[in-house]
Specification:
Elements (H helix, E strand, L loop, with lengths): L1 H26 L4 E8 L2 H20 L4 H7 L3 H9 L3 H5 L3 E6 L4 E8 H27 L3 H16 L15 H15 E11 L2 E10 L2 E2 L2 E6 L8 E5 L2 E7 L8 E5 L11 H9 L9 E6 L12 H5 L4 E2 L4 H16 L11 H13 L1 E4 L6 E5 L2 E13 L4 E11 L5 E6 L3 H8 L6 H19 L3 H7 E14 L12 E8 L1 H13 L4 E12 L6 E12 L3 E11 L7 E8 L16
Parallel strand pairs: 4-11, 8-16, 18-23
Antiparallel strand pairs: 1-3, 2-3, 4-5, 5-6, 5-9, 7-8, 7-10, 10-11, 12-14, 13-15, 14-15, 15-16, 16-17, 18-19, 20-21, 21-22, 22-23
Length: about 600
């Protein structure tokens, strides 16, 4: 009985302490914002408390949203109420919570120091500047799609910031005017011309040659007007895009293109950004429309004719191309007709299985009769590269990819892959310090790796990882600074380690949950491991795009090439950004 009385007294003291704290907070309006809520569940009560707290904050900061007020005019009050609620997720990390009632009569009290409020806004300001930096880096690499995406995302978040009209970039530029200027400057630098016209059964395809300030773009997303409607979004690659029209008698004089810059679907990678984009009207940029016209044939930039000579690829040209060329023509015919089974005699059993996966990847079409390269490596012959388009109706998306074919000693197509981008190929090909054989193996491996994810070849991916492979995946976390925790930009990267079995299990789920996956690589570095034998580390920037998720980060693979026919990954790491000193995981970390 005595113990029961003691316990009851402690409970009363605790409730008294909470009550006293709540009353102190409510009385001290100079230093606190607060909210309280009730509901049948803690979550419902907590959301009510946060909603009340946000309403108090909104009253305090409403007059500061000058940029939003300029944009919305008479609709300002409604838009402001929507925008201020996008800070609720950030507020969760900064508020204190007191539960005063349990379910089903849950009661929650939330409060935050007024001094903490500016930290919430500072966090969003840092993200705005970070997006702008990402855009600048992408523009330097002629990644026009990425540059526009990050500049526009920065502008969108800027409109949701109470000090959006005064925030400056690292060089002192006022971002409210600087960001739109950067976006318009990119539009002004993009040009497109109509290239080869290909008439197929029931439709016509015209190649687009897309440049930024005279240089082929690494990537560029756009839609085009077909006379009745705007097309799906198309992702151009290495300066090559296309337009399609119904009918074969089309005489195309010019085509209107609309440059994609919003990238609303990809915003899902950042819940805060996604929330803001749903509450703020898109900013119309009239300069995003450009006209593609034919140019004089003498001035027309054609598709690369011979990639081997262009990049000094570590392969030997094939003397007698005839049997391979004949097979490629038969393959093209089967793709164009949609009679895929007719191509079966051209393949090995494994090769045909890959081909079926390829044509199931998306609606596959051949873009042009590009002059092909036939290159020899050992007993195999490689055909580079057939430009193709792949469309995904459910996700309003189309990609341009170059198809590479591998013929075995019996002149059968044993495998196929998507070619690396021009920059990635160049980065590997110029590493003349490494033997030609190694560079050839790396190019082949990375193209097969990229293709395996696109075609969701889980069996292949499982086969190239050693059973004891070390797999590390990093994720970016925001942290609140304090005396013991002074990270740069208030960010840390949390690393999770997975076994091969765990990684494959997660990958299987990812494959099932999305219609398509598209990988693009750039910025390659190759280093030989000190462990002996043909073991090499590959550091590479990876852009990952799928139907429901996208990200960019840095990939490191430690690959054993001692058996060239069965390369094996011993280490795979991925991190969302470089380390503070500019490095990423590499060979030296695992020797």
């Amino acid at each position: 009985m005595k113990l029961l009385l003691i316990a009851f007294s402690i409970l009363l003291l605790n409730n008294s302490a909470f009550s006293q704290t709540i009353q102190e907070v409510k009385a001290d309006q100079k230093n606190y914002f607060w909210g309280e809520g009730s509901g049948t569940t803690l979550k419902k009560a907590d959301n009510d408390a946060l909603s009340m707290l946000i309403n108090q904050i909104s009253t305090q900061v409403e007059s500061r949203f000058e940029l939003l007020k300029e944009e919305t005019g008479n609709e300002y009050k409604e838009k402001f109420n929507s925008v201020i609620k996008t800070y609720s997720a950030a507020t969760l990390k900064n508020t204190e919570r007191i539960v005063t009632g349990e379910e089903p009569d849950a009661k929650v009290f939330r409060y935050i120091k007024r001094s903490e409020l500016d930290k919430i806004f500072t966090e969003r300001k840092n993200k705005i500047i970070e997006f702008a930096k990402n855009a600048g880096q992408a523009l330097n690499e002629f990644q026009i799609a990425d540059a526009l995406k990050y500049y526009y995302w920065a502008l969108t978040l800027l409109k949701s910031h109470p000090d959006g009209n005064t925030i400056k970039y690292t060089g002192g530029e006022l971002m409210a005017t600087w960001l739109p200027a950067q976006i318009n400057n990119i539009f002004a630098g993009v040009s497109a011309s109509l290239g080869e016209l290909k008439k197929e059964q029931g439709y016509s395809t015209q190649i687009l040659q897309i440049n930024y300030k005279g240089t082929p773009v690494s990537n560029y997303d756009y839609t085009y007007w077909d006379g009745k409607n705007w097309s799906n979004i198309i992702s151009a690659k290495d300066g090559t895009g296309f337009v399609e029209f119904a009918g074969t008698n089309t005489d195309i004089k010019e085509v209107k293109l609309k440059t994609e810059y919003v990238f609303e679907g990809e915003a899902a990678i950042d819940k805060e950004l996604q929330d803001v984009m749903q509450k703020i009207e898109p900013v119309p940029f009239r300069n995003s429309n450009i006209i593609a016209k034919p140019v004089d044939k003498k001035e027309q930039v054609t598709l690369s004719k011979v990639e081997g000579s262009k990049y000094n690829l570590p392969f030997t040209a094939v003397a007698d191309k005839t049997p391979y060329f004949k097979s490629v023509e038969e393959l093209k015919k089967s793709i164009r007709s949609g009679n895929y089974e007719s191509a079966k005699p051209l393949f090995t059993e494994t090769g045909f299985d890959m081909f079926k996966q390829l044509v199931q990847y998306g609606k596959a079409r051949i873009l042009a009769d590009k002059e092909l390269s036939f290159l020899k490596q050992g007993d195999e012959v490689m055909c580079r590269a057939i430009p193709m388009s792949f469309s995904f109706k459910n996700n309003n998306k189309q990609f341009v990819e170059d198809l590479v074919l591998n013929f075995n000693a019996e002149k059968k197509i044993s495998s196929l892959s998507f070619a690396l981008g021009e920059k990635a190929i160049s980065d590997i090909a110029v590493k003349t310090a490494w033997p030609e054989k190694v560079r050839a193996l790396v190019i082949n491996f990375m193209e097969n790796y990229k293709t395996a994810y696109a075609l969701k070849r889980l069996d292949y991916i499982e086969s190239i990882f050693s059973d004891d492979a070390l797999i590390i995946i990093g994720s970016l976390l925001k942290v609140q600074p304090n005396e013991m925790n002074k990270y740069k930009d208030n960010k840390i990267v949390k690393y999770n380690r997975y076994t091969k079995q765990e990684y494959i299990k997660n990958l299987k789920f990812a494959f099932k949950s999305t219609e398509y996956i598209n990988l693009k690589f750039e910025d390659n570095e190759i280093r030989k491991s000190g462990k002996g034998g043909e073991i090499y580390g590959i550091q590479i920037k990876q852009n990952y795009v799928s139907a429901n998720y996208s990200d960019a980060g840095y990939l490191f693979l430690l690959i054993d090439f001692n058996d060239p026919d069965k390369p094996s990954i011993h280490v795979r790491t991925w991190q969302p950004e470089k380390n503070p000193d500019g490095s990423i995981y590499g060979v030296s970390d695992f020797n």
